[in-house]
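Researcher: I'd like a structural prediction for the single chain below. Treat it as a standalone chain; there are no partners to consider.
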Amino acid sequence: MIDAVVALLVVAATHAGFQLTVTVLVYPALAATPPDDWARAHDRHSRRIAPLVFLVYGGFVVTGVWAVASEPLSTPLAATLVQAAATVLLTGALAPPLHGRLGVEASRPELLRRLLRVDRARAVLAVVTLLTAAAAALTR
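Model: Treating it as a single chain, here is the predicted structure.
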């Protein structure tokens, strides 16, 4: 049977793969979209990625709560939980408002650059979270 720390590691690995795919492939393709096709491409991206975001970030919430409720709080586990929470908060606080504005505003280049910076921060957090989750699973 899988325990909470291993489940958190699986979610962290899933998130890192998802986030790196977005950072390396999805957002660069979106950023290269010609202005006359922007609204359609951005709307399609938003509709398609939303279920994955809810699934991956929901996995962090579920496994994080499970780990807090059932595991001794080691330093690597605490770091993983803090980093996962920071990722969820960073994403929730910044990405949806930027995407919302990108969907309607003509001043797209500045907003797009801001979104790409937020995305790179999430990619770094994803990799660091995966590493601390692995440490949490290996040091029990």
